[in-house]
Amino acid sequence: HKACTHAVSASNHSRQVSAKLKQDPVESSGPPEPKRARPSAELSTELTVGLEEETMIGTMTVNRNQEVREKEEETMFEAFTGEYRTQVFAKVKQEANNPDTVKRKLVEANLADLKVKQEVI
């Protein structure tokens, strides 16, 4: 029957521990209630069902987490590109208000325009 107790998951174990703590308070008054021994067949069936349920829940959780992670990555990417765009616009706006930059940009634009015209010819 040792194999059965090993099959108990960590969450079940913590549940049992907390249940035990609730049952036996530190200032215990009177004798502890006698524990009813359960037949091992009933116990092992319950454990198997519990494990199957936890496995299913585990699988569902993994799939769910995958979806959530993909969504978060998309959101983060959108947020990043949005933030990046905002920074670029801010920089462009800041430079646009600087008269020296405006002149330089016009010269660059004209040069680029000339270069394009030369390439066309």
UniProtKB/TrEMBL annotation:
Residue ranges of the region described as Disordered: 1-43
Biased composition (Polar residues): 8-17
UniProt protein name: Uncharacterized protein
